[in-house]
Amino acid sequence: MKTITFRNALAACAVNSAVAMLSTAGAATPDATLDRQPALHVQAAEPLAAPEHTQILSATRAGLRIVAVGDFGVIVLSDDDGTSFRQARSVGSRSTLTSVMFVDPKTGWAVGHWGAILKTVDGGENWALQRSDIKTDRPLFSVYIKNSSEGFAVGLWSLLLHTSDGGHTWTQVKLPPPPGSTKADTNLYRIFATASGTLFIAAEQGRVLRSTDGGMSWTYLDTGYTGSFWSGVATRDGAVIVAGLRGTIYRSTDDGDHWQRAKTPLEGSITDIAQLANGDVVAAGLDGDEYTSHDGGTTFEGRQRFDRAALTALAVSGNAKPIWFSKDGVVR
Fold first, then answer.
1. N or C: which end of the chain has fewer CB within 10 A?
2. 113 by DSSP, 3-state: which?
3. Residues 281 and 292 sit within 8 Å (Cβ to Cβ)
4. CA distance 151 to 304
5. For position 21, what pLDDT does the model report?
């Protein structure tokens, strides 16, 4: 897999996800094929023989449990700190899932292609579909949940959704066009927040969006970079870090007003980044690259895995070590 195509592939395979997520209502006859398109219907995810080997695109913790999501609506759970995984009992969509987040050990949301948003209230065992759009596939790439009532989801072509009622309704937020453009059509890849509540969105073309009023208004920040940022994290000491193409990592210590490029030894495009309990910052790269920073994200060490696994997500284990996931599922 080419390092520059990970997020582009997510958007492109949204078209193909119709095969996995949707079914036709009856077979059209040859004469009718030219006159109408078959009706599309949302289908639930199916049990898989080896769900832990399905491509995983996001992972998080729900209390002591690890929850990871990916292709075909797969959601896998681990109650032994990543030693073994099993598939969730029921998931209300077969759409590819790209992001997952929990606000407490029981309550979480996952988002994905066809604008799918799912919620669980039992720690990830069962997931109910709250939203989908089978008319226009604008995939969602990231979800951020502030509390049990309020949250955001972001995706293709400046799609930003907001809920204030626990996900029962989702309203599209209109973003301003970026400087030099006449419309807002930037792909939004990761939304996250600092401890003080400032919201950030890592996006394409080196853009980072910021909201200091709880998501009511947004501004574009100049990072000095022109490539895509696929991931981001706010560290416990207040730094904001975004990462993406070719091992590129930028860091800000003043809430995004100024950015410095971090030193990185490798060029594997970064798909996920997180802070461990000991303060180290770790990142996953598509070329099998594992990045680690011992100074809060200013500089990074790196090593390329012998198996060159295309790392697509990570979670933090109970003993403050990263658990890696790839396009081939759980990395042992």
1. C
2. helix
3. yes
4. 36
5. 36
What is the share, in percent, of the chain residues with pLDDT greater than 90?
A: 84
Instruction: Assign residue 59 the CATH number of its domain.
Output: 2.130.10.10
Query: What tens digit of pLDDT does each residue of 17-46 get?
Result: 333 333 333 333 334 444 455 556 789 999
Tally of structural domains, the chain: 1
Dihedral sign from CA coordinates of 304, 71, 232, 145:
negative
Q: Are 61 and 30 in contact (CB under 8 A)?
A: no
pLDDT of amino acid 40:
65
Read off the DSSP letter of residue 313. Answer: E
Q: What is the dihedral sign for C-alpha 81, 143, 54, 305?
A: negative
* HEC secondary structure over 180-248: CCCCCCCCEEEEEECCCCCEEEEECCCEEEEECCCCCCCEEEECCCCCCEEEEEECCCCCEEEEEHHHC
Main-chain phi, psi angles of 27, to 5 degrees: -90, 130
Query: Distance between CA 229 and CA 204 in Å, rounded?
Result: 6
Report pTM. 0.89
Average pLDDT score over the chain? 90
The answer as to whether 26 is a domain residue is no
Secondary structure letter of residue 317 according to DSSP: -
Taking 50 as the threshold, does the pLDDT of residue 111 lie above it? yes
Residue 3 dihedral angles phi and psi, to the nearest 5°: -65, -25
Sheet containing 171-172, strands listed edge to edge, beginning at the edge strand earlier in sequence: 140-145, 151-155, 160-163, 171-172
Strand partners for 324: 314
Residue 250 lies in a domain: yes
Whether residue 33 lies inside any domain: the answer is no
In a domain, 38, yes or no: no
| Both structure tokens of 52 | 């832990």
Instruction: Report the first-to-last Cα separation within the chain, whole angstroms.
Output: 20
The domain in which residue 181 lies consists of 3-21+43-330
Distance, in Å, from the CA atom of 193 to the CA atom of 40, rounded to the nearest integer, reads 36
